[in-house]
Amino acid sequence: MSTDEAGKPGFDAMLQRPFPERELIATSLEAVITDERMPGMTGSTPIRALRKLRREIPILPMSGYVGGAVASGPREVGANEVMKKPLSARELATSLARVLRK
User: Fold this and answer.
1) How far apart are CA 102 and CA 53, in angstroms?
2) CA–CA separation, 43 vs 70, rounded Å?
3) Pair type for strands 32-35 and 59-63
4) Cα–chain-centroid distance for residue 12?
5) pLDDT (tens digit, 9 = 90+) per residue, 58-84?
6) At 96, is the pLDDT very low, low, confident or very high (cuts 50, 70, 90)?
7) Cα distance between residue 100 and residue 58, in whole Å
8) Which of 80, 73, 84 has the alpha carbon at shortest distance from 96?
9) 5, 25, 27, 63: which has the fewest C-beta neighbours closer than 10 Å?
10) Cβ-based neighbours of 44, under 8 Å, separated by 6 or more
11) Which domains does the chain carry?
12) What is the spatial distance between Cα 40 and Cα 47, in angstroms, rounded to a whole number?
């Protein structure tokens, strides 16, 4: 996750922007790759928020654990695929290409 100039997490900073600006940021994204476990939130949090802004955007969370709830939770809230870490550049590129074709 990137950070803004004040060092706030990029996703939190985006959500605090006024609606037109927040929507503009979300519409400029072609895909979102996120981690399932982050300080203070799970990957389901940004997935839910992004789905409210753009239903069709491909979202690919990744996790070192892809069994059970870790895989089903993100899919239930709208993740296209859940990738297992560690992953190679080729695996990332393949997953990203697959969801961008849909």
Assistant:
1) 19
2) 9
3) parallel
4) 13
5) 999 998 876 766 667 788 888 999 898
6) very high
7) 7
8) 80
9) 5
10) 36, 73, 74, 76, 77
11) 31-101 (3.40.50.2300)
12) 15
How deeply is 80 buried, as exposed, middle or buried, from its count of CB atoms within 10 A (0-12, 13-18, 19+)? buried
Instruction: For residue 49, give both structure tokens.
Output: 């928020």
Helices 19-28 and 44-53: crossing angle in degrees, nearest 10, is 100
Residue type (1 letter), 94:
T
- How many residues are present in the chain? 102
Letter for the amino acid at 89? A
For residue 70, give the nearest of 49, 87, 54, 85 by alpha carbon. 85
What is d(CA 98, CA 101) in angstroms, rounded to the nearest whole number?
5
Q: How far, in Å, CA of 64 to CA of 35, rounded?
A: 9
Q: Which two tokens stand for residue 17?
A: 């922007």
Integer CA distances (angstroms), 44 to 18, 37, 53, in order: 22, 9, 15
* Six-digit token string for 86: 């560690």
